[in-house]
Design a protein that fits this description.
With about 300 residues, the protein is of the alpha+beta class. It has 8 helices and 18 strands.
C-alpha cells in the first residue's frame, strides 16, 4: 500500500487474503475488512467504503497523550523507513498480539523517542516524516456530532429488509422485517448494504455507524464506559470500553486508537471494544460526538 499509494478496495482485500494464507493464516470472510478498519483507525490509510477506494496517508509522527514525549508513526511506511528512523532515534517496534488465526494482525506499532520535540521535528523532516503534535487530542476537538443524512425513498415493497431490534446492540444487531416504529433498517441494492433511518413517515439516508449511534441515543442507551488508570500532569488517563455492537465512525476510532498507537482490542467475555491510554477529556469529546455520555467506573 505504501509503494502503490491508492487503489481499489476489492482488489486490495483479495491481495490481503492471499498474502495472509501464505503466512499460515486462515482469514474469515470479514477479516480483510476488519484489517482495513484497523489500518484506518491507526492513521495509515483513508478508506472510502462507498466509493470502493483506498489511499495511503502521508507519513507522520504523533505524540501519544501523557507519553513523556513518545511519538507513534502513522501513514506511509516504505520498506526502509524504520531503518532510517533507527539511525536518528530510539525506536521501539511492537507487534500486535494475534489470538485467532481467523483474524489478521494489524501492522506493527512504531514508537519514536528523542531528546526534545524540536530535535524530533527536525530529524523527522529529514526522512520525509511530518511531526503533527498530539493528533488524538486534535481529532477529538474537531469531531462533529453524528447526523442522519438527507431524505430518501423507502425500500421497494419487494426488497427484503432487516431492522435493528431493541436491546440487540450487544448481540445480533438486525432481524428480518421493516421497523414497526422509528428505527434503523438495512437492505441490499446491487449487492451493497444500504441503510435508512425511519422517523414517522420520513426515511433518511445514513451509514452503519451513525445509524447505530442515532438509534442508541433515541433509546437512551449508554454503551460507553471509562476507567481511571493513572494521573499524569493533572490529566486523568484511563481505559475506554464500548459495547461491541456499536462500531465507532472512522474519525472517532482514530482519536481513541492514536492515544496509544495500538489497534482496538476486544474483550470476549464482556463483549467490549477496548481503548487504552485515553485521557478523560478525549473520551468525553468522542462520546459526545456520538450522542453519548461517558460513564466513569471504578
Amino acid at each position: 500500500m505504501s509503494e502503490i499509494g491508492s487503489g481499489d478496495i476489492r482488489d486490495l482485500r483479495q491481495r490481503i487474503t492471499w498474502l495472509a494464507r501464505t503466512a499460515n493464516f486462515n482469514p474469515g470472510k470479514a477479516a480483510s475488512g476488519r484489517w482495513l478498519r484497523d489500518v484506518s483507525a491507526l492513521g495509515h490509510a483513508e478508506v472510502d467504503w462507498e466509493g470502493g477506494r483506498w489511499a495511503i496517508a502521508p507519513a507522520v509522527a504523533t505524540l501519544i497523550p501523557a507519553g513523556d514525549g513518545t511519538a507513534v508513526l502513522a501513514g506511509r511506511r516504505p520498506l526502509d523507513l524504520v531503518d532510517q528512523l533507527e539511525t536518528e532515534f530510539a525506536v521501539s517496534v511492537v507487534e500486535p498480539a494475534t489470538k485467532d488465526p481467523v483474524w489478521l494482525p494489524a501492522p506493527s506499532t512504531v514508537y519514536i523517542q528523542a531528546e526534545s520535540l524540536a530535535e524530533l521535528s527536525a530529524s523527522l523532516n529529514a526522512v520525509g516524516v511530518s511531526y503533527v503534535g498530539c493528533a488524538a487530542r486534535g481529532i477529538a476537538e474537531r469531531l462533529l456530532q453524528v447526523q442522519l443524512g438527507e431524505p430518501a425513498g423507502p425500500p421497494a415493497w419487494d426488497t427484503p429488509v432487516e431492522h435493528l431490534a431493541a436491546g440487540s446492540v450487544g448481540g445480533v444487531d438486525f432481524v428480518r422485517g421493516a421497523p414497526d416504529r422509528d428505527g434503523l433498517c438495512r437492505f441490499l441494492v446491487n449487492g451493497r448494504q444500504q441503510y435508512r433511518y425511519q422517523i414517522g413517515s420520513q426515511w433518511l439516508r445514513t451509514d452503519y455507524a451513525p445509524g447505530i449511534w442515532w438509534a442508541l441515543a433515541e433509546r437512551h442507551e449508554q454503551v460507553i464506559r471509562w476507567r481511571r488508570e493513572r494521573r499524569s500532569n493533572s490529566a486523568d488517563i484511563g481505559t475506554m470500553f464500548i459495547d461491541q455492537g456499536a462500531p465507532l465512525p472512522p474519525l472517532q476510532a482514530r482519536a481513541l486508537v492514536l492515544c496509544s498507537g495500538l489497534p482496538t482490542q476486544f474483550g470476549d467475555t464482556a463483549r467490549t471494544a477496548i481503548y487504552t491510554n485515553v485521557p478523560l477529556p478525549v473520551a468525553d469529546l468522542v462520546a459526545r460526538s456520538v450522542r453519548q455520555l461517558v460513564s466513569v467506573i471504578d
